[in-house]
């Protein structure tokens, strides 16, 4: 969980990420970053903690966009990273911060530490964090631990049960997110029926507007139809090959747009974000004109057009990609 801390001398706002062991209160990873809360820094912090202390069975976070969006019907980069390590990402109920109470208490402690030492630069914050973790873990007796042990003493005393290292399928993450979203939409629809005399269908449709104003068939799903094989993003209509007609689960992170087949969990369409294309005429853009686009089972003609387009407009990325590599991806 992040804590925003402004060093008092020049009012620079930093973001502090903390990872605390649930049982021992041991601080396994605290870092300070100059950017606002984001998925890249969150993954970097967690990766460092795992490198130092191993892979836990689960990691609990709040429902922030940098951490875990399952309860909002989406999957983040951190969730996918954890799943790849064999760690199950879990989150507290929305609007129920007490679930992460131990971490929230740690935020208060480190903020008090910063207030007492008044860091004057970002570098001084990094130094203070090193001192804080040494003091908190090894010298500060914790009132919530038996015998008021230090977190380090508790960490050394317990028998650790790390993850078995078996990766968790991204398809499972998507299914969980879609189930949460469907449950929330159904609850919203029922409440609307009682309170506003609206039908479940009406409310469900009202909740499913995409950015283009069109309706999705089912909450959290993208349906590509043969008579209109397109997906919509940021005001653009991206035309896709007809062999990709079907129903897909949408996963969007800060850096990727991905559609996964709902039957086998394989990635069918993907491209980097923000969306980048040299096509400026109108809203309709063939997917092969999107930088870094990749599709499942591309035909040779699609691959040739895409590679030629990237070679013309993005020569560096075209040189880095092997033929077919940029356009053929399986989950």
Walk me through the structure:
Residues 1-159 form the Integrase catalytic domain. One of its GO terms (molecular function) is nucleic acid binding. This is Integrase catalytic domain-containing protein. Pfam families: rve_3. The chain is built from 9 helices and 13 strands. With 331 residues, it is of the alpha+beta class. It folds into 2 domains: 2-168, 2-Layer Sandwich (Nucleotidyltransferase, domain 5), CATH 3.30.420.10; 215-327, no CATH class. The strands form 4 sheets. A 5-stranded antiparallel β-sheet has the order 6-9-10-11-13, with helices on one face. A 3-stranded antiparallel β-sheet has the order 1-2-3, sandwiched between helices. It is elongated and about 70 Å long.
In short:
This protein is α+β, with helices and mostly antiparallel strands. It is built from nine helices and 13 strands. It comes from Brevibacterium aurantiacum.
CATH superfamily of the largest domain: Ribonuclease H-like superfamily/Ribonuclease H
Count every beta strand, where a strand is a DSSP E run of 2 or more residues. Answer: 13
Give the terminus-to-terminus CA distance.
29 Å
Uncertain segments: 196-219, 321-331
InterPro entries: Integrase_cat-core, RNaseH-like_sf, RNaseH_sf
GO molecular function: nucleic acid binding
Protein name: Integrase catalytic domain-containing protein
Pfam families: rve_3 (PF13683)
């Amino acid at each position: 969980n992040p804590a925003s801390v402004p060093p008092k001398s020049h009012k620079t706002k930093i973001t502090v990420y903390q990872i605390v062991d649930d049982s021992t209160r041991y601080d396994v990873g605290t870092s300070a970053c100059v950017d606002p809360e984001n998925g890249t820094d969150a993954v970097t912090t967690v990766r460092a903690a795992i490198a130092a202390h191993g892979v836990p069975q689960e990691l609990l976070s709040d429902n922030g966009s940098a951490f875990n969006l399952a309860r909002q019907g989406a999957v983040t980069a951190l969730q996918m990273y954890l799943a790849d390590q064999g760690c199950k990402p879990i989150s507290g109920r929305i609007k129920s911060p007490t679930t992460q109470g131990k971490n929230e208490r740690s935020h208060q402690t480190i903020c008090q530490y910063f207030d007492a030492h008044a860091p004057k630069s970002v570098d001084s914050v990094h130094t203070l964090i090193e001192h804080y973790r040494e003091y908190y873990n090894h010298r500060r007796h914790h009132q919530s631990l038996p015998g008021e042990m230090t977190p380090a003493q508790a960490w050394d005393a317990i028998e650790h049960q790390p993850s078995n290292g078996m990766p968790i399928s991204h398809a499972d993450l998507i299914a969980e997110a879609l189930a949460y979203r469907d449950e929330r939409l159904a609850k919203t629809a029922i409440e609307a029926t009682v309170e506003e005399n609206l039908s479940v269908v009406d409310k469900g449709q009202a909740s499913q507007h995409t950015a283009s104003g069109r309706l999705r068939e089912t909450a959290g799903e993208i349906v590509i139809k043969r008579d209109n094989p397109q997906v919509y993003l940021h005001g653009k209509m991206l035309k896709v090959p007809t062999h990709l007609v079907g129903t897909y689960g949408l996963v969007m992170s800060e850096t990727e747009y991905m559609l996964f087949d709902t039957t086998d969990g394989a990635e069918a369409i993907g491209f980097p974000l923000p969306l980048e294309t040299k096509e400026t005429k109108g809203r309709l853009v063939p997917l092969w004109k999107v930088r870094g686009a990749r599709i499942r089972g591309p035909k040779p003609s699609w691959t040739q057009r895409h590679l030629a387009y990237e070679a013309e407009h993005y020569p560096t990325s075209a040189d880095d990609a092997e033929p077919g590599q940029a356009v053929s991806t399986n989950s």
